[in-house]
Write a structure and sequence with these properties.
Blueprint: H1 4-20, E1 32-34, E2 49-52, E3 57-61, H2 62-68, H3 74-86, H4 92-106, H5 113-131, H6 138-144, H7 150-162, H8 178-190, H9 195-206, E4 221-222, H10 251-254, H11 283-292, H12 299-311, E5 320-324, E6 328-336, H13 348-354, E7 365-372, E8 377-381, E9 383-389, H14 403-417, E10 422-427, E11 433-435, H15 443-450, H16 462-469, E12 487-493, H17 518-526, E13 527-534, H18 540-545, E14 549-553, H19 557-574
Parallel strand pairs: 1-3, 2-4, 9-10, 9-12, 12-13, 13-14
Antiparallel strand pairs: 2-3, 5-8, 6-7, 10-11
Helix pairs in contact: 1-3, 3-5, 4-5, 4-9, 4-11, 5-9, 7-8, 8-9, 11-12, 12-14, 12-15, 14-15, 14-19, 16-17
């Protein structure tokens, strides 16, 4: 039985040499050699080793290393894990982009995207170590002997071609998938420094060898995370959703032989036409990619991050009112305090100075105060009261990218950015209401209301609008009392918005008076204007029934830019 302490010592001493394999200036904290001498509470993984992209740290499971018989290959395994930091993926965003490309290539086998991205990164790293740093990675594969798995037979045969090894040295006795292995070997060299660009083609080649359901065990290492944060930049990247190119048709792999046929195929990294926001990941795909990365989140939380990231590109200068500052109290002289005046007004210091004998009404004094108007104005942000339609005619924003929900996120996050408070309410049929339950500065609570979905009937919560702006105890007053803050009312809906002006009916009555409806009176009382953002082909009809509200038709991603600019120009001018 191999001594655990001796293996720990060997691997600790080999760490500097492993760093040098990637350059003499490479720096990284020493690895965690598990189980640690002080005792580790972290559950050990089945992998030999892994690299944590969040903590930027290598971990090695020494007990698994010993069981697998590769404890003498410290240099190759440690240098390999460092390669996940230096070459592929390097960071969580690159890992996410690789996962997207792999999922596109795998199609209905996308449940294997974590395996494919890990194998692709391993191949790039191992080829660099074997051919440039002269680290014997092949010896590790010989010891592990994973040639029984059809996926690994293909990968190992490609390694034999890359490293000029005899057929069967790593992959075991034939027959071997020669054509596919040759394509992979050429793909590795063509995309040696571009892990995102090549992983889609790698997935296309591996796809027929992967099972439809059962998971395939990663034989070497894993670098999945266990964190609860999104991956900034991934949701809005328009360069990663283009269909991947099979290596047999890729000019970078096959050379000029296929150049003419691939003339019209732009490489990964070519941006789509201006305004085509739908070319990015959908919220559901974004959630699936995060899951493949091991990011501990839910589809709804992923949707929060998706809409936050997309909305940040269109934030508008939400209005801020500049009111005269409150009068300032200035100290004046002293007046006589008489019996019957408020006892709290007595200035006892001035009274004692006036006479050592205190005689009420004769020697008692009180301070006189004068008021002067403040010289500076006070910035008062306009609060936002937003209502989002989630009836059956509206798409579920957790599953698909909905421009109408994105419009709500733009308004809400723009208001929060300037210090305003937001009340967000999602509504559908009778008694189908969810939201923040009042004005808040919590952006996560606001986004949760924006992505909520009922899918029921259509009945605007007019009672909530009236209670907020027309009741005696209006919730738009400031938290500590004092003056009432102006508030902007926004409604995100479609044709169902008519229920806002008809007390829940779907049609306007014959004697309809637009100016006397509760919705019209509420926007006047709110004092900050109103906006209707509607998924309708023409907004003219709704402008007639909604005095005091600016009406915008938003149906496509291209409409979003025009909406944001027009909203900013109109409301900022009002402020």
């Amino acid at each position: 039985m191999t001594d655990l302490d001796a293996v720990r010592t060997l691997w600790s001493q080999t760490w500097p040499q492993a760093l040098t394999a990637w350059g003499r200036f490479t720096r990284l904290r020493p690895p965690r050699l598990l189980p640690e001498a002080t005792g580790s509470q972290e559950p050990l993984r089945d992998s030999l080793a892994w690299f944590n992209l969040l903590d930027v740290e290598v971990s090695v499971n020494l007990e698994t290393i010993i069981r697998a018989g590769v404890h003498e290959h410290a240099l190759a395994i440690l240098a390999h894990e460092i390669g996940h930091h230096i070459l592929a993926p390097g960071d969580l965003l690159t890992a996410g982009r690789m996962a997207v490309r792999a999922r596109l290539g795998l199609q209905e086998r996308d449940m294997h995207s974590a395996l494919v991205t890990n194998l692709w990164a391993d191949m790039l790293i191992n080829d660099r170590l074997q051919t440039r740093a002269h680290v014997d990675v092949a010896a590790v594969y010989r010891t592990l002997d994973t040639s029984a798995d059809p996926v690994m037979r293909l990968v190992l045969r490609a390694c034999e071609i890359l490293w000029s090894l005899p057929a069967g040295d790593l992959a075991g006795p034939g027959p071997h998938p020669e054509a596919e292995a040759l394509l992979i070997s050429r793909l590795v060299r063509a995309y040696a420094a571009d892990p995102v660009g090549g992983v889609g083609g790698f997935a296309l080649v591996l796809r027929p060898f992967l099972p439809l359901a059962a998971a395939v065990e990663v034989p070497w290492c894993a670098h999945h995370e266990s964190i609860g944060t999104p991956v900034p930049g991934l949701a809005t990247d328009p360069t990663i959703t283009r269909d991947p190119l099979h290596p047999a048709l890729d000019p970078r792999v096959m050379g000029s032989a296929v150049l003419a046929e691939a003339e019209d195929s732009a490489p990964v990294g070519t941006a789509p036409a201006q305004g085509s926001g739908s070319s990015t990941l959908s919220p559901a795909d974004y959630s699936a990619v995060l899951a493949s990365l091991g990011v501990g989140t839910t589809p709804r939380a992923a949707a929060h991050a998706w809409y936050r990231e997309h909305a940040s590109q269109h934030l508008v200068p939400f209005p801020v009112r500049h009111d005269d500052a409150a009068p300032e109290d200035l100290l004046g002289g002293h007046d006589a305090w008489d019996v019957g005046d408020d006892l709290a007004d007595v200035d006892w210091s001035a009274t004692v100075l006036a006479s050592p004998q205190v005689i009420p009404g004769m020697t008692t004094r009180r301070r006189h105060y004068e008021q002067e108007q403040g010289t500076q104005t006070e910035a008062v942000p306009v609060d936002l009261d937003i209502y989002l339609d989630s009836s059956g005619s509206m798409p579920d924003p957790v599953r698909t990218g909905a421009p109408i929900a994105l419009a709500g996120a733009i308004l809400a996050l723009s208001a929060l950015r300037v210090g305003a408070r937001v009340q967000a309410t999602t509504w559908s049929g009778q008694h189908q209401i969810a939201g923040t339950g009042g004005f808040t500065r919590d952006s996560e609570a606001v986004l949760a209301a924006i992505v909520a979905h009922f899918g029921g009937g259509t009945s605007f919560p007019l009672h909530l609008l009236e209670r907020t702006h027309l009741s005696q105890t209006s919730t738009t007053s400031s938290p500590g009392g004092g003056r009432r803050r102006p508030c902007h009312i926004a409604v995100i809906s479609d044709e169902g918005v008519v229920t806002m002006f008809t007390n829940g009916r779907s049609h306007l009555p014959a004697s309809f008076d637009p100016g006397s409806t509760p919705a019209a009176r509420a926007v006047r009382a709110a004092g900050g204007g109103g906006t209707l953002v509607l998924n309708v082909p023409d907004a003219a009809r709704y402008r007639q029934m909604a005095p005091g509200y600016d009406v915008y038709a938003v149906r496509t991603w291209d409409d979003m830019v025009g909406f944001a600019r027009s909203f900013a120009r109109t409301l900022w001018g009002r402020s």
